[in-house]
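so i finally got all the pieces together for this one. its three components total, 1059 residues if u count the protein bits. some of the lines might not be protein, just check the labels. i wanna see the whole assembly predicted at once instead of chain by chain like last time, that was a mess tbh
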Amino acid sequence: MLKRHPLIGFILFGLILFLASNRVDELRVFQGATVAVYVIAIASIILLTGYSGQVSLGHGALLAIGGYAAALSRNHWGVPVWLAFCIAVLAAALGGYLLGLAAARLSGPYLAGTTLALAIGLPSIANQFSILGGEQGLSFDIGLPPASLGADFTQYKWFFWIACLAALISVYWLRNVMNSRYGRSWKAVRSNDVAAELAGINVGRNKVLAFTVSAGLAGLAGALLAMTISTVSPGAFPLTLSFSLATGAVLSGVTTLGGVMIGAVTLVAIPEIVDSVVSRFQSSDVVANNLPGLVVSALLILTVLFVPNGPVEQMRARHERRATK
Amino acid sequence: MIQFINMLLIGIGAGSIYALMAIAMVLVWRSTRVINFAQAAMALLSTYIGFELVQKTGNFWIALPLAMLLGALFSALIEIIFIRTLIKHSTSGPVAGIVPIIATLGLLGFIRATIGFIWGNQNVQIPAPLSKIGFTVGGETIALSPMNLLVLLTVIGMVFVLGYIFQKTNLGLSLRASAYAPEIAQLAGIRVGAIRTIGWAIAGAAGAAAGLLQTVNGTGALSPDSLEFSLLLTFGFIAAVIGGLESLPGAVLGALVLGLVLAVVQIYISGTLVFIVAFVLLLVVLLIRPQGFIGVKAGRRA
Amino acid sequence: MIRTNRQKLALTSALLAVAALTASSLPAQAASDPGVTATSIKLGITVPMTGIASPGYNKIPGAMKAYFDYVNDNGGVNGRKITLVIKDDQYIPTTAVAKANELILKDKVFALVGTLGTASTKAISASTQLAKRGIPSLFVNTGFSGFADAKAYPTTFSILPSYQMEAKIMGKFLKEKYADKKLALIYQDDDFGRDALAGFKQAGITFGTYIPYASGSQSLPATGAGWISKLKASGAEVTVLFGVSSASTAALANAYAAQYKTQWVLGSVGGDATTIAATNKAYVPLLYGAKGFSFAPAPTDATDEYIKLFQSIYATAQPTQTFDNNVVAGMSNAFLAVQALKAAGSDLTRAGLIKTIETKGASFANPFLTPLGYSATAHVGATGYWIGTYDPTGALKPDGGKYTVYTTDSGNGPVVESSYKRPAMPAKGLPN
């Protein structure tokens, strides 16, 4: 039943999350909101890299566009929150469209390098125009949860609900898009763009579309990220964010949407777990500072070396091998 | 007039620093077709090894070639242990594009943390071997010092030596063939794996030189989180791409162009635009002439 | 129902996520404020320990801990021992918020102390709703004047003078001392530098040459040389540098390379001789003759009783690390925190602590040479600067042989010479 009506699966999962949010403590709720944000961001990379074959090392810049668009529209025009998020999606999608136009002619290291330079160059733009708030950034306040939910309803729970709802809708929608003819044409271009061109697919337009959609999702993630920290500033979208998202996509399995939660949870959970393990030992400053980085990097290297396609693909391949025996 | 000349010298000086890293990146790219953050990690580690050597021997001129040698060895080691496993386990397609990038990113983090463990997170210092005071020409001190000259000569020397190896020797031919068409090279009897390791070793030596020279040419301070290093990588990469990832002279030319453009912007326009201009320059070059100034249009399919 | 392995795995991963979410117990009902027991007080700090902004700043927590341990060894605060939980935020606001949440919700600290970075402090305050929860954020390590506004940040307390204050005082100094000289200004082109521009404007001073630099670009090879080239062309006789220490290092080193002489006036952030020394000892003599601004005694001033005490404490706690301005900043911060906790009494509550600082904070003993400005409406810490000249060893010596302090506010108030005399250090350096 779930296979034929995946929507039911999503709704069920949403209900589970709703129930869970009332039972867990606030730190987990906050982390859950962060996970939801990463889910959307990683999904956007899976679309761009896994499906459309374009490597982006600068997705943080697209998140930044979304975050700033949401904050600016809310601060200056006082738009309701949902509209601010829509504006974020559109602004980032526009940015992605322009980037896609430039990127369609590039491949491999050139594309990666361009996105990298974008990720580095964009934050300095925030310092140029005072309307963007500079280094300290702008505040982004989505307001209090509605009174109908009760006085005890915390802000983080509200963030969690909004972020999870957005994530569920985004993943469901993206899944449908990837199974549509657009998704199939992206896959075709990824496998062999010459053959795809011969088969009548406009490769350039195809790639630009992928960039635009991916950027729109990234913009939504950026606006939600700004929501969770209630501010938007250049420092919130550093190069390491772009790298983390790419890492999360690889850990999830970059070619498929199924494992997107794995990457998102890993990004949030591993640093905290490593931190608490390290703090158990009474260690010197040097150890305490560097051990987390060491462990996280080592885990990443091992995972990427031995499960490069991601756990979902790995299991599927194993299942197929077994089936054909 | 004097400011114009100084501006040129400043631009060339900066460009030669970028060129050092750009050369190392082009070497790795031409040998392995992999974007390699590990290059950055190894350059950093080799620089720390250079620091230790300078401390132990008290002589920069001994430390530099030794650091290059160790950098080459370490780089070859990484290739054997790490990259071969990576290539063996990953399939083709988009995964082959992004997975090595993430893997080498992990390696960078690992090496950074290891450096922090061994040497701590504070600055260590490498004293410069030559004076940084500019030469005096006609009573004016110009923006060229013995140290600047050393960097420039090193860059020129590297281009000549490496160019000779790549163009005029059998080793160079094997290197180019293995990178460009590994299956065919294998059929022709070239041991592609061993050749690739050698390619990485050469790149490791170049990276060590780049790291050491840029450190002593700058403030002489070194830390695992050094901002100078991160910026050097980025701008080295931009320089390599502007010049076309395929050729060493191109990398140097790209680096010089980058250095000069940024110097002009900084001195005659405004220092706040430096990062934006670098990005715009990269974008413009990629849009108008994606193969870079000196690059072959065909065969760029990565 | 669930057929393919892919769906199985997707479902499993989703369930795992939910399980991870639920894997924590519900919070226990607290009888008193969290982080405080009969025998202990838990404080938390988020600071860049690794990452680009970390060199220098990552010494602050160690310095704070050294002083807290000294206090613990000498009876603690009203019988309670202080623990400091240190979290690395890598100067990224999202990480800072996540770590602050861990401190508040998991480690259950009594108060945050010494949060570093304007953007991070803002994000933490807004996202974790410090004001609503009543959690004190003591003595934040940033020069942003907004945190002193008690209405906007009722539980946050500044400690450093704002950049605007510094620029106003600097402006008055430049007007009086160098009225007929050609002035040039190198400044960082972000809020830090722009706050300074506002302060200079208020002081009524303009420069002949303005050289802004993009934050981060000071570490590029050409940048410093470019500044000197411009300065040479402009013929500036007095050059003011309002930037970070890597910028002043670049400026000084390149001036030396170009044999360019000018009267340097360095802001307090970039003028830290010990950070410059940590970069390269050879640059310290380049500071000779430069003017510097500070509000605390110089770390090289062995005659100062606070410096002497801090030096001896730090030498025992961290023998391999150098004693510099970051250490002084950290230990001063810790000293003030202990003073505040002590004054709040044995019945320690968050609200009580905030009230105590507001009412009694201005008279707290502390190492600074300027008065503190804490009140119910303004959570302002240090309010001024003294001016000195660097000697060949990089030590900042006060002009006129004694510390003459000028104070002002972050608004339109005038710059006045203060008659503040720092009270004697309490016995053994333990606040009472």
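The first helix of chain A runs from residue 6 to 21.
The beta strands of chain A are 138-139, 231-232.
anyway lmk what u think
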